[in-house]
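Allow me, if you will, to draw on your knowledge of protein folds for a short while. I have a record of one protein: its chain in single-letter code and its fold written as discrete structure tokens. I should value your view on which stretches of the chain appear to form regular backbone elements. Thank you for your consideration; the sequence and its tokens are set out here:
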Amino acid sequence: MEQVYSVGMDQYKRSSTLHIRGPQGESVRQLTVRHVEGGSPPRLRETLESLEQPVHVAVEATGFYRWMVQDLRSLGAHVHLARPSALRLIFRAKNKPDDNDAERRSRLVWLGQAPESYIPTEGEAQRRELVGTRQLLVGMRVALANRIDPASARPISPSA
């Protein structure tokens, strides 16, 4: 039988909390790592490389998950992008420390029940970012035009 390690992550911009489960579901280790500019924190890299492959990691779909998914994949991890809304429904937790979230995510990965979101390809992610940037620029243009001539009877349409 394949030995699989399950890792739950609760990530923030400056740090991440990890909870690691062994192949039989036992808690192996819990740690917090500080993020570094330009890649994976050395401590995260060392920790994941010390585990036997394969490693399955649950990461919450936050606004900045893409770089974390790329880093984890480069380390050979199988990444599960967990939907935040489903996690809230599953846990309904009032006690929300980071280590509890990481531990719960590792349990869901170990059980094979992590509520997954779609991870877009690099091309899809770039197109989404381009559309979002265009929407932002059109909104800025409309706001500026309306400030320049607020008494204008004809408001500028965002689709122009």
Q: What stands out?
A: The chain has two domains: 5-111, 120-150. The two ends are 60 Å apart (CA to CA). Residues 122-148 form the longest helix (27 residues).
